[in-house]
Design brief:
Protein name: Membrane protein YkvI
Organism: Caldanaerobacter subterraneus
Strand content: under 5%
Keywords: Membrane, Transmembrane, Transmembrane helix
Largest sheet: none
Distance between the termini: 27 Å
CATH topology: Hydantoin permease
Amino acid sequence: MRKNSISSYKIAATYIGTVVGAGFASGQEILQFFVYHGKKGILGLLIVTLLFVFYGNAILFLGNCFRASSYKRVVFEIAGPIIGKVIDIVIAFFLFGALSAMIAGAGAIFKEQYCLPYFLGSLIMAVLAVLTVIRGMEGVISAISSVVPLLLTAVIVLSILAIFYLPGEIYENFFTPEIKPPVKNFILSAILYASYNFLTAAAVLIPLGSEVENIEGIRKGALLGGIGLGMMSFLMFFALIKVPVSFFFEVPMLYIASRISPFFKFVYTLILIGEIYTTAVGNLYGFVVRFVTSDSKRFHTFTIIAGGIALISSRVGFANLVHYLYPIAGYGGIILLLSITCKINNCRKM
């Protein structure tokens, strides 16, 4: 593929695909970081949309500036050897934590929607992820490209149906005081939501930026991607507040789908499981290659051990992992965003 053949639309699609994972599709991320703040959550979504546009463009541009094939080079260039090492460790930590969250999410679907053992769903997802990573990533890359468009379509259609089809007043009882958000301040909540997403997105956006020759294409791609992410987040926000009882489910969007029709629930379940699978595989692979190369003799052993430990840690529960892990990772991500803010102008002058 020629570098100048990467259009702004492909950049936007890749950007959205790196941010929209199973945590987003389940509804838990929007619920925890925005809905629990009530009407202030709307302002939080406006803030996070602006952050997605600005820092998406900045990360792509840094990848282009340094012609970096890996996020590590840019991280150490903009943050220095000491802070860069900290960011590197935080990214590895979050990759593993997000893997545990995906395994837990599969267990939650099995338990809530099919009355099957929680551990069975988690075990199946962990085994599938390990087997896929051991065999290689070529098939998974094509799987991600096919699952993401289906996921985006399902999220948009489901949210619109929930807002306009399901009965009830959209602002009625949508804030539940007895449920406490993981981050009390809605502005900080929005910043943390963006920052932890950029921890994993940077691993894809930086090398993508290095392949683009047209800077204007980067700007348009980041703009389209950021607005697209914001639009989907707003739609999901209003869908969730339309059905407040969904707050008490680990996979709230799946509950909303069941309220619309059994068929829609079935379709959304398949798409969500597919997204959990591709996200789990990406996180497991990213975590493993951080420590051993894919052609190493220890690669298979390390993959199996990492998958087993993630299965054990998934017992904490999907909602709890989102509630506690993601904000912690967000604080680490803030260091990355601050480093980008300080160095982006220097790169433009090079």
